[in-house]
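Weekly sync, protein design subgroup
Attendees: M.S., D.O., the rotation student, P.L. (late)

Item 1: inverse folding check
M.S. brought a backbone from last month's batch and wanted to see whether the design step gives back something sensible before we order anything. D.O. pointed out we never logged the input encoding, so this time it goes straight into the notes. Structure tokens as presented (260 positions):
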């Protein structure tokens, strides 16, 4: 599940961790394929970043930021037997495992084949195959559901606002209680880092990260007819120098756009 890290268009050694999540895969045009290819090509770096192996420098800061964000999001999901979660863009599965250990039943979907395979291996090794199911593919077409909660951590960073909103309205149709997601917040520092990133060769850049003005984005999202019956709950921002991510909780308050 796999944020806006060093830069919207990062390069060099830090490019492997600057976009701190794998992508769910939903979207339009060639974007999902480009994102899949990027994360597939750098899968070993993501597997290490989300493991217990020691890392240093930027990767350590990114890991700390991701851990803090995951902890916040998980605190918004009640634990216990029988509760279900879709982890859209689950990457190597570290957050899916954290939820499973709290008693949740998790469906993880990952578009990058190597990351999906790593997630399955971790689930098997942890003895949690009865609680976590990993699928390779586009999370917008995730099998199963509806789920009580849908989690989309650091995935929407790579999509323009219009596409991100379409993705969220689709996920909202399959969520019974809450929709939890993160956005890349538009900040001065992130904008400056983005300017530095474009100086590097295009082949070295991570997929573009799309910072947004969070308040304006949420207004536009909730104005969409597909979000009828949803309201903003808690919010929280994590900024660790090389990791910038803003968490949002949406709660279902009525029947709204629920699929039947």
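Designed sequence read out in the meeting:
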């Amino acid at each position: 599940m796999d944020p806006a890290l060093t830069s919207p268009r990062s390069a060099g050694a830090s490019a492997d961790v600057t976009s701190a999540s794998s992508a769910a895969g939903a979207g339009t045009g060639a974007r999902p394929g480009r994102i899949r290819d990027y994360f597939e090509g750098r899968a070993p770096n993501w597997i290490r970043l989300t493991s217990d192996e020691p890392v240093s420098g930027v990767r350590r800061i990114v890991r700390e930021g991701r851990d803090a964000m995951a902890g916040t999001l998980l605190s918004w999901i009640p634990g216990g037997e029988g509760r279900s979660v879709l982890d859209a863009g689950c990457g190597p599965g570290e957050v899916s495992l954290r939820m499973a250990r709290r008693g949740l039943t998790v469906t993880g979907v990952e578009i990058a084949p190597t990351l999906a395979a790593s997630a399955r291996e971790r689930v098997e090794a942890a003895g949690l195959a009865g609680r976590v199911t990993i699928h390779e593919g586009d999370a917008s077409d995730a099998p199963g559901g509806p789920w009580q909660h849908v989690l989309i951590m650091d995935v929407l960073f790579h999509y323009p606002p219009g596409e991100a909103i379409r993705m969220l309205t689709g996920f909202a149709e399959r969520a019974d209680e809450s929709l939890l997601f993160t956005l890349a917040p538009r900040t001065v520092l992130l904008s400056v880092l983005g300017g530095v990133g474009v100086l590097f060769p295009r082949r070295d850049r991570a997929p573009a990260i799309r910072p947004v003005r969070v308040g304006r984005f949420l207004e536009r999202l909730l104005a969409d007819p597909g979000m009828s019956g949803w309201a903003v709950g808690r919010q929280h921002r994590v900024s660790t120098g090389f990791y910038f991510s803003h968490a949002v909780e949406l709660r279902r308050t009525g029947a709204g756009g629920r699929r039947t």
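Discussion: Residues 57-75 form the longest helix (19 residues). The beta strands are 84-88, 105-110, 132-136, 147-152, 175-183, 230-239, 244-252.
Action: P.L. to compare against the previous round before Friday.
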